[in-house]
Design brief:
single chain; 250 residues; 7 strands; 43% helix
């Protein structure tokens, strides 16, 4: 399994944050030292882990040079986090210096030896923050909902990945496409899966065998500051995310 993994899709509402938090917690429950990095100005990853993202240091202060990266890390039972909040939305205009694509890569280099794995939650856009995630990451997981519009988001992401590979990170690998909110009983889900397989082939990757099923528990977790693995450990999504980690480890 790659050490630094970014969870990415330019389309929102496909389960990036849920996947990020669940993988962080699943790795932590197996005794790993795990850091979650929130590059989404909405701050959903930190909030979902129970952090008050408006009153604690964030990755924005780190990028601005106001705070050492190790002092911005928040420690929770789920894992360690570099949180974000709405201030990070100014990144595109504020961080205009040469080498700005390496902001995250450089900061992670200062602390990477303290962790076994780093999971990066990206914003629903192909912008500077997403490029920073791709430059820092070794592997990408692309979650998607089994809907036609999600297919469009995946096809558009290819150009950005190819550009990052060419200019910054030639070893970046797409680990797989993850189908979220999946139901094999729905014809549309099965049809989208077939079309996704064709896109995966063009991206030189595959669809994960494990698929994440729907559950109301997933929507309830953020309000309780828990991942689905502890909030509803017997639920299908909790079992699915455990199986996904097994697949990644294998």
């Amino acid at each position: 399994m790659k050490k630094i993994i970014a969870i990415t899709n330019q389309k929102g509402g496909v389960g990036k944050t849920t996947t990020s938090l669940s993988l962080i917690h699943a790795l932590r429950l197996r005794g790993n030292r795990v850091l979650g990095v929130d590059l989404d100005p909405q701050g959903s990853l930190g909030f979902s882990a129970g952090l008050n993202i408006e009153s604690i240091p964030t990755i924005y202060e780190v990028f601005k040079g106001k705070l050492p990266v190790d002092q911005a890390i928040a420690h929770t039972e789920i894992g360690d986090f570099l949180p974000s909040n709405i201030l990070l939305s100014a990144a595109e205009s504020e961080f205009n210096m040469p080498g700005r694509e390496y902001l995250l890569h450089n900061e992670l280099g200062k602390i990477i030896d303290s962790y076994d794995y780093v999971i990066i939650d990206t914003p629903p856009a192909l912008n500077l923050l997403t490029v920073n995630a791709y430059v820092a990451a070794e592997g990408l997981i692309i979650p998607m909902a089994p809907e036609i519009l999600s297919l469009l988001g995946i096809s558009q992401i290819r150009e950005t990945i190819d550009s990052v590979r060419h200019y910054y990170n030639p070893d970046l690998e797409i680990l797989g496409i993850l189908l979220n909110r999946y139901s094999s009983r729905l014809l549309l889900n099965r049809e989208v899966e077939e079309m996704t397989a064709q896109i995966a082939s063009r991206l030189d990757t595959h669809i994960f065998k494990c698929k994440i099923h729907s559950s109301i528990a997933v929507a309830e977790c953020p309000a309780h500051g828990e991942s689905v693995l502890t909030y509803a450990p017997s639920s299908k999504p909790a079992q699915d995310y455990t199986a996904l980690l097994d697949e990644l480890m294998a």
